Automatic annotation (TrEMBL):
The lineage of its organism: Bacteria, Bacillati, Actinomycetota, Actinomycetes, Propionibacteriales. It comes from the Bacteria. Belongs to the ROK (NagC/XylR) family. It comes from Nocardioides caricicola. This is ROK family protein. Coiled coil: none annotated. InterPro entries: ATPase_NBD, ROK.
Amino acid sequence: MGPVNVGLDIGATKTLGLVVDDAGAIRAEVREPTEPGAEGVLRTAARVFEALRAETGAELTGAVGVGIPGLVDTERGAVKHAVNLGVNGDWLHLGDLLADRLGVPVVVENDVNAATRGAVAMSGEDDLVYLSIGTGLAAGLVLEGRLRRGDHGAAGEVGHIPVDPNGVQCECGQRGCLETIASGSALAAAWPSGDVPPAQALFAAARAGDTKAVAVRDRFAAGVASAVRVLALAVDPRTIVLGGGVAHLGEPLRVAVADALLQQAASSPFLASLDLAGRLSVVPSDYPVAAVGAAMLGR
């Protein structure tokens, strides 16, 4: 096996590990349920890494890239406020702790930023916004080839732009944030669906002509379109890629958001001239964009 890179995408429910070669091809893939808490996260990551070693039969001595939710200090390889993982309070020095267990260097990045790097690799574009529609709503920005984190690490936190003063209280403490309209958790609240993922259930019901489902879908799509519009007007990227758990819908999601963008631009020649709908794409449902991006960190 030639030169390879290892990436771990640590999420609230699962940790996905990949071995990716220099051409971007996936050579091995392992997924395990994530154990909660600092020790659980470390144990899960180590288990996935050892399983990748076993599957490839390779030593995997290069640096491991890790994408993880929360506030990440990339210089120190530390994370905090990864609430869904049970990592709260003080900084968890994940990079050092994991490097000790694995015996290789570890590079840590916020999961959305890691996925943004994966979107760059996937699209070949180096000027893009990656909009992650998962439990929350957040964007990664690569502008002219450079990742923009922001002075406080808050670049792309578009989900916390308030758009409805009469809206529901957001986790962040503000009221009526975009995230309360245009996220996986907002969909789950608006369209409870039992065992089926809410986004799949909602779009299927809307496709079947359920008028309430059509209204809920269109409000959601308009919220995502508003996030796209804000990002495009702020940094004017060449392309906008939709990702995150809800993006597993694939083309129906892109079409719904593109339609909402066209409606929003109908009364504005200025907006229409920007062709936001035409700049939109969606991550293929079988492409593990965050884990691929994490693997690129280790190069």
